[in-house]
Request: fold
Amino acid sequence: MRLWKSKTSRQNLITLASVMIVFSVFFVLNNNGVLSRSLSGQLIPICVYIIMALSLNLTVGILGELSLGHAGFMSVGAFSGVIAVSFLGNYIGNPILLMVVAIIIGGLLAALTGFLIGIPVLRLRGDYLAIVTLAFGEIIKNILNCLYITIDDAGHLHAAMFDSSSLPGKFIINGPQGAKIPARLSTFGLGFVLVMIVLIIIMNFVHSKEGRAIKAIRDNSIAAESVGLNITAYKMKAFVISAAMAGMAGVLFAMNYSAIEAKKFNFNTSISVLVMVVLGGMGNLRGSIIAAIILTVLPELLRGFDDYRMLIYALVLILVMVLGSNVRFQQFKISISKKMKGIFKRKEAASK
Reply:
């Protein structure tokens, strides 16, 4: 694979190793009861938002298109995962296998939704694309609010829009009341595996022929088109992969609760994920992971400061954004990095 060659490959290996170390530490601490109950409950959401940040970074950072409807793909994955678990639960007894099948189904349906939305959307640029993706995200949420799905005693699914009075069986999705989760199948270990899979897929895709073409389109679409690149096709590939990953994250998210509602996947969720991408750095996968962890855990850590929690949270966001765009702070980080590399090189030379 292209992943294991050159300086970029070494950076990718460092990222993968760092993620494995951090997750191993959290796994050990959680199993030994060191983590508080609130922090332990945040482990699966951390995995979810890491996947969401990485997938959106593929669209916003790598492709260079602003999407404001990413939570819509997450909701498609979440609700389709609930339906899959409810329907297949009688046929698949192994909970891990059932969860894997649900994740695959959620990812595929989210990818299909991304493809259908991408047909009109990806021909737009700039603010127009952002507005239309925002609209599609809200449309998906409103469709789910009007959707009713039941399952009868024979295991047959029945669906209706707006009116549920004629549907037999028990509800899986009950319109604005959301969906009841038949079993909480999400685990921290499964979340970690999914994060690693998503990370490896994105790394390989970014450094593939398609990834280089997408970067060329991002930097100068006119020049890319002049050398024969099919701009819409390459954009569609990145957009569909991003949507599929968001759908898989949605299944992991839904199966961590006893019930979910469509309003959870609203505009604010899309903006929260976008903030993670911006704070972590456009196109910076490692930064997206760090930002997702911090911004998921931070509200819980500040819960003890009820009166000032959102104020502190806002100040932290402003501080990070200001420092992230400050030239002197960037130069300071580079100088520290060079000094650390120099220290390690001297230690290696001394050991030889």
